[in-house]
Amino acid sequence: MNGKVVVIIPTYNAGLKFLDLLNSLDSQDMKFAQKVIIDSSSTDNTVALVKDYGFEVLNINKQDFNHGLSRDKAIKHVLAQDSSVEFVLILTQDVVFETSDSVSKLLAVFENKEVSAGYGRQLTDNNSSLLETASRKFNYPEESMIKTINDIGCLGIYTAFLSDSFAMYRVSDYLAMGGFSDTNFAEDMLLAGKMILDGRSIAYVSEAKVTHSHPYSITSEYRRGVEIAKMHLANSWILERFGTAEARGNKLLFSVKFYLIPFLILEALPKYFGYKITKIFNKK
User: Fold this and answer.
1) How far apart are CA 190 and CA 232, in angstroms?
2) Which helix (H) or strand (E) covers residue 201, if one does?
């Protein structure tokens, strides 16, 4: 599959692990038209490091970072320079490619003209928690799939699931859908949901793999729950059209061995409380 591909990575104090991503990106069996980071005023050597790897740097203030709008800003910047770019590869700073053909395998799915966006498989490592390991295995199965509006009845909200830790978008469809929303959580799912409801397809490519592991603290899990609730409250259509997140969570719970269920529940409680308390507070 041919086509101009640009890489965009939001960064902030990326640390030593970022070097593994940069090296694995350089080892891919394809060339990128451009590589860009949108950096939230890092205080370490992130910016100096990426310049050695041929990245253009867009700087923003840390307090101005927005998961949807910051990524959209970087995409619009790229297109202003080269309107012939066909695909945008979005990564997070904490992934590492498993194989040298991971990106080309993801790109290949776009031979299907109905596919507007695609994402690869995320694997965990020995530092991952039980919850992270279980959720990755549950959300990123061994079988690839193409998801359409006809799958909502079977897959529910998972139909719109997509992760910008390793995702690719067809630029023409990205623009047609209005790009990423003004949100600090799930900009990927919100855009995928709009694409699905518009009759487009989302591809999951299990052969395209990255390692992605970032164990969260209790406080971080609570905050994630808060952000998920805020996103759902601001975008009620996603649950109305695709079904509740709780239904998906229950399936995850019973996907693990029964003796692990209590441990999984304990790890999930901070996020659950953050979610529920935010929704209750909003209603009041």
Assistant:
1) 10
2) strand 201-212
What domains are there in the chain, each with its CATH number? 5-215 (3.90.550.10)
Which residues on neighbouring strands pair with residue 146, listed in sequence order?
Answer: 203
Task: Give the whole-angstrom CA distance, residue 24 versus residue 184.
Answer: 28
Q: Scanning the structure block, which residue is given the tokens 């719109």?
A: 160
Element (H, E) at 65: none
Alpha-carbon dihedral sign for residues 100, 14, 71, 78: negative
What is the model's pTM?
Answer: 0.90
CA–CA separation, 226 and 221 (whole Å) = 9
Beta bridge partners, 37, equal 9, 57
Query: First and final CA of the chain: distance in angstroms?
Result: 53
C-beta of residue 133 within 8 angstroms of C-beta of residue 124 = yes
Q: Which residue has the tokens 């994402």?
A: 119
pLDDT digits (tens, 9 = 90+) for 196-243: 999 999 999 999 999 987 766 667 777 777 777 888 888 999 999 998
Residue 203 β-bridge partners: 118, 146
How many angstroms separate the Cα of 209 from the Cα of each of 65, 109, 215, 254? 27, 14, 19, 25
- Residue whose C-alpha is closest to residue 140's, from 221, 93, 207, 87: 207
